[in-house]
Design a protein that fits this description.
There is one protein chain. The chain is α/β, with parallel strands linked by helices and 394 residues long. It has one domain: 3-Layer(aba) Sandwich (Rossmann fold), CATH 3.40.50. 41% of the residues lie in helices and 13% in strands. The protein is built from 13 helices and 9 strands. The strands form 2 sheets. A 7-stranded mixed sheet has the order 5-4-3-1-6-7-8, sandwiched between helices. The chain has a two-stranded antiparallel sheet with strand order 2-9. β7, α12 and β8 form a beta-alpha-beta unit. α4 packs across α6, α5 packs across α6 and α7 crosses α9. The longest helix has 29 residues.
Length: 394
C-alpha cells in the first residue's frame, strides 16, 4: 500500500467533515433566538378588555359601595373612617384583631315590617297557619299570635309583646332539634314577601347594606349580627341558601331560649348528664330579649371587646351605638338607617324624621334609604304596597 497517498486522503476526509459540522452549527445558531433578546424578554402582557385601561386602573375604579349614591355624606363618612383606621401610618389605625363591627338585623340589613318582623310572622305562621301545629298550639301561644295580627291590621301597641313573643316562640318549637328548627326557618324564609313582587322573605336584604358588610369584611373587620330576634331564628335565616352574606353562625347573636338533652325531661342541667345517644333540642324556656342595654351585655359576653363600628335603625340600637362610641382605645362611629323611602320600601316618614333628629343629637351618622341608595333590593323586585294602599283608600 502507498502510505503517502493514504495519509493526505484521510486528512481530506476529516477536513470535509469538520466543514460540514461548522455549516450545521452555524445554521442552528442563526435560527435560534439570541440569549440577549427572547430568553430575557418578559411574556407579552395580556391586553385588558377595555382598550387603553390597565388592570390596576380597572381594579381601582371598582366602587365597593357602588349601590350608594355618589356624593352621599353617609357613604363618604364610612369610607373616610375605614381608610383612616386601616392605614398603618394613620393616628387612627386599629389593629385587625380589634376591628369589631356590630349590626342590628331587622330594619338595618333586611326588610323590617312586612307587615311585621320576620320572627313575629314566623310565630303567626306556626301557631295560626301550620296544619301540623295549629291544632296543638296553647292558648298563650294563640293569644300572642293574635296580638301580632291585631298589631298588623290595626296598629295596636302591646308593650308586653316583645317578651311574650319570645316565650311563645320557645314553647311553640319545643322539642325540635337545632337542625330541624333551622329547616323550619329555611322553609318559611322561602315564602313570598306580601308587599313585594320578586322577593322572598329570606332574601329581603338591603343590597347597599350587603355591600357595607362585605366592604368591612374585605378590610379585616370582624362583623357580628346582634339582633333582638331569637338567636336560633337568626342563625336559621343566615344559614339559608337565600342569604347573600357569609356570616359565621357564631357571629350571629340574639335573644336566647333554653336547649336541653332530648331525654332530659324536667331534670335540672346540673343534675343531668347528656348521653351519647341523645340530641340537643329546644327546651321551651325563654331567657332574655336582646334589645337596648342587653345588646351591650351580649356583645361583651360573646365578643369580649368593645365595638368600633355600630349599625342600627331604631332606639333599641342606641345602647349598642353608644357602647361603640364609648370605646376608650380607638376612634369609633355609629350609623343609623332612616326609613324615608315610601316608593321602593314600606317606609315611615315620621319615624325617619325622628331618627334623623336623634342622629344629630347623639352623634350618629344618618343614612337616608331614599337619597343615599340607588337601589334597595336590586333588579327584579317591586314594592307594590304603596299601590295597594292607594287602591284601598280610593
Amino acid at each position: 500500500m502507498d502510505t503517502k497517498k493514504f495519509v493526505p486522503s484521510i486528512w481530506r476526509i476529516v477536513a470535509i467533515a469538520a466543514l460540514c459540522c461548522c455549516l450545521v452549527l452555524g445554521a442552528m445558531a442563526f435560527s435560534k433566538p439570541s440569549a440577549t433578546s427572547a430568553d430575557n424578554e418578559e411574556p407579552a402582557a395580556a391586553q385588558p378588555a377595555d382598550e387603553g385601561t390597565t388592570e390596576d386602573e380597572t381594579t381601582n375604579s371598582e366602587d365597593p359601595l357602588s349601590l350608594w349614591t355618589e356624593g352621599a355624606a353617609s357613604k363618604q363618612a364610612l369610607i373616610d373612617y375605614v381608610e383612616a383606621v386601616t392605614d398603618e401610618s394613620s393616628p387612627d389605625f386599629i389593629p385587625a384583631e380589634d376591628r369589631v363591627a356590630t349590626f342590628d338585623v331587622d330594619g338595618t340589613l333586611i326588610n323590617e315590617t312586612d307587615p311585621n318582623y320576620f320572627d313575629y310572622m314566623l310565630l303567626v305562621h306556626r301557631v295560626l297557619e301550620d296544619p301540623d301545629y295549629k291544632g296543638k298550639a296553647s292558648d298563650f301561644e294563640k293569644s300572642v299570635a293574635n296580638k301580632i295580627v291585631d298589631q298588623n291590621e290595626n296598629g295596636t301597641k302591646y308593650d308586653e309583646l316583645p317578651v311574650e313573643h319570645g316565650q311563645a316562640v320557645a314553647s311553640a318549637f319545643a322539642g325540635m332539634t337545632v337542625d330541624e328548627f333551622y329547616d323550619y326557618v329555611h322553609e318559611f324564609a322561602a315564602s313570598d314577601m306580601p308587599s313585594y313582587e320578586g322577593m322572598k322573605r329570606g332574601n329581603a336584604f338591603y343590597q347597599p347594606m350587603v355591600q357595607v358588610v362585605e366592604y368591612l369584611q374585605a378590610n379585616d373587620f370582624d362583623v357580628y349580627m346582634v339582633s333582638g330576634t331569637d338567636r336560633l331564628i337568626m342563625r336559621g335565616l343566615f344559614s339559608s341558601e337565600l342569604c347573600p352574606l357569609n356570616i359565621p353562625l357564631d357571629h350571629v347573636l340574639g335573644s336566647d331560649e333554653s336547649l336541653v338533652g332530648s331525654e332530659q325531661e324536667e331534670a335540672d342541667g346540673l343534675d343531668y348528664t347528656f348521653s351519647q345517644d341523645e340530641e340537643l333540642v329546644l327546651g321551651g324556656e325563654f331567657y332574655m330579649k336582646t334589645l337596648k342595654e342587653n345588646k351591650c351585655y351580649i356583645i361583651q359576653r360573646e365578643v369580649a371587646k368593645v365595638p368600633v363600628l355600630s349599625f342600627g335603625n331604631s332606639s333599641g340600637d342606641f345602647s349598642m351605638d353608644n357602647y361603640a362610641l364609648s370605646n376608650p382605645d380607638y376612634r369609633s362611629a355609629a350609623f343609623q338607617l332612616c326609613c324615608d323611602d315610601i316608593d321602593r320600601e314600606n317606609g315611615n316618614l315620621e319615624k325617619a324624621e325622628e331618627m334623623r333628629t336623634q342622629c344629630e343629637e347623639n352623634g350618629y351618622v344618618a343614612i337616608s334609604m331614599k337619597d343615599d341608595w340607588s337601589t334597595i333590593y336590586g333588579d327584579g323586585v317591586t314594592y307594590v304596597g304603596a299601590e295597594e294602599e292607594l287602591a284601598a283608600a280610593a
